[in-house]
Amino acid sequence: MTPLQDRLDKATVIVEEAMHQALAFFSARDAIATREKGFQDFVSEADTSIETLIRTRLDTAFPGERIVGEELGGDGGETYWIIDPIDGTSNFLRGSPLWGISLGHVTKGRPDLGVVALPVFGEVYSAADGTGLKRNGAALARVAPMGDVRVVSLGDSARDDIAEIGALHTGLRQAGWVVEALHTTSVSLVFAARGIFDGHLQKMTTMWDIAGGAVLAREAGLDVRIGRRSDIDVPWIAAGTPQLLTTTAQLWPEVGDAI
Question: DSSP states of 17-74 as a string?
């Protein structure tokens, strides 16, 4: 086993444990404490508890390595782990199965290892540079049936310029794509990696939202481009098939510039 595969296996075990805890919270979600930290941006007792668990396990498995989390913060650096304990908290709280747990590792701004769990589906997706995509430990090839059915996921953020996002949505529709919005970046990237979507586009995001899923999409064979907006210095991501990204670049020039 290579050192990278060993790191991926350890990270996967950590996310698997967190998945079981998250499902217990999901079953009792009507009773857990919740607060709103921004417009339609919620944090629950489950978020903080799961992030604490993952941090504790990372400290044991990878002593001394930096950790950043959505809820508990932390300082990054050239290399660090990054956690989104429940990506899609609003979905989680409303009882939708479309939420995930994302753990990524970033080196010099580039995600290079990712694990994303879809707890309600009992699935854990994992990948690192050169490993290919795995589901529940087994190699998984991206399959996109009925290629004439074109579907793309469009991410959202409370900070979005609605007119800007509306123009992208309209342009994609006019170019022949069905546009989905799941309100969970990591699950959207998993669906892109599996072939359910042709890709996922998000003009404003965070590294904890994208780090895990970006690696999955790249190892599944998609073109993954990550940049930073010049106006407010936040990340964006465009991950998809060549056809999708060619169309997207005509509507969103930064994607073309990132080749």
Answer: HHHHHHHHHHHTGGGS-EEEEETTEEEEHHHHHHHHHHHHHHHHHSTT--EEETTTB-
pTM of the model: 0.94
Q: What does each C-alpha distance from 211 to 165, 174, 196, 206, 225 come to in angstroms?
A: 22, 30, 20, 9, 12
Kind plus residue range of the DSSP H or E element containing 101: strand 100-107
User: Bridge-partner residues for 139, per DSSP?
Assistant: 134
pLDDT digits 0-9 by tens, 60-111: 999 999 999 988 888 889 999 999 999 998 899 889 999 999 999 999 999 9
Which superfamily does CATH assign the domain made up of 3-139 to?
Fructose-1,6-Bisphosphatase, subunit A, domain 1 (3.30.540.10)
Classified by CATH at the fold level, domain 151-257 comes out as D-Maltodextrin-Binding Protein; domain 2 (3.40.190)
